[in-house]
Design brief:
Hsp90 protein binding; two-stranded parallel sheet; Parkin coregulated gene protein homolog; mainly alpha; 7% strand; 255 residues; Parkin_co-regulated_protein
């Protein structure tokens, strides 16, 4: 008869059977992966589950480009304008005097092209609006209500190049024509929401230099300049309407 030491386990007892259930330390211990389940469901209360996080709202995501009415009309040859290459660069060549054009038809079409971000459409739109504003400023005030929807659609694209292009044209329109700034005040509810969204979207470069500010391509700086121009040329009711839509804006006239 062999006597076991008092500390040895009982080979035929419960201790030996319990030791057989334990995994070996050299055996890889695998665990089940957590199941990803949607929130606010019965599955979210089960064990070994992980609730799916809410999706991003994407409020700053740019919209995909779409063909505009300006592009279709230009491809059909409805505009009396062409690009002329000279020794000093490119410019627009008008086939008819600008003073004889129907501004109620052509000016909203050019502003509809603000949503275009590719060449040659953006070049034609920018220089075309400049020529129409400088040579036919006295015809623009009655056309202002027809320009609101094209400006709103261009700002709603949320593409930085399109936003900069549209803001420059708004500044050109307000400063180059009499009483247009006052005529835009009732339409701030359609124009300013996108400006409120991107007003503080400056890039933090740290110790670096943001060269977009010197080239006029910084969206936040252009928005601040545009709001100041709207306040200066918008009359006595401009600031309170801008402040209503953009609470963080501070007056450049009253301060």
């Amino acid at each position: 008869m062999v006597l076991l030491p008092p500390c040895a386990p009982d080979i035929c007892g419960k201790d030996f059977r319990a030791s057989l259930k334990k995994p070996s330390p050299n055996y890889p211990y695998r665990t089940k992966k957590c199941r990803i389940v949607p929130a606010f469901t019965i599955q979210a209360m089960q064990k070994n589950t992980k609730v799916l996080p809410p999706p991003k709202c994407g409020v700053f995501d740019p919209l995909p480009p779409k063909p505009t009415m300006f592009r279709r009309c230009y491809q059909r040859g409805e505009f009396p304008v062409s690009i002329e290459f000279t020794s000093s660069g490119k410019r627009l060549a008008w086939k008819v005097p600008i003073e004889k054009l129907d501004f109620h038809h052509y000016l909203p079409m050019f502003f509809d092209g603000l949503a275009e971000g590719t060449y040659p459409f953006n070049f034609i739109v920018e220089h075309g609006i400049h020529d129409l504003v400088t040579k036919g400023s006295y015809k623009i005030l009655p056309v202002v209500p027809q320009l609101i929807i094209p400006i709103k659609n261009a700002l709603a694209t949320k593409r930085p190049t399109v936003l900069c292009h549209a803001l420059k044209c708004i500044q050109m329109l307000v400063t180059g024509c009499d009483r247009v700034g006052e005529a835009l005040v009732p339409y701030y509810r359609q124009i300013l929401p996108t400006l409120n969204l991107f007003k503080d979207r400056n890039r933090n470069m740290g110790s670096g230099i943001d060269h977009t500010t010197t080239r006029g391509e910084n969206v936040a700086d252009l928005i601040e300049d545009t709001l100041q121009i709207l306040e200066r040329y918008g009359g006595p009711d401009a600031f309170i309407n801008i402040k209503y839509m953009i609470p963080t804006y501070e007056s450049c006239v009253l301060n």
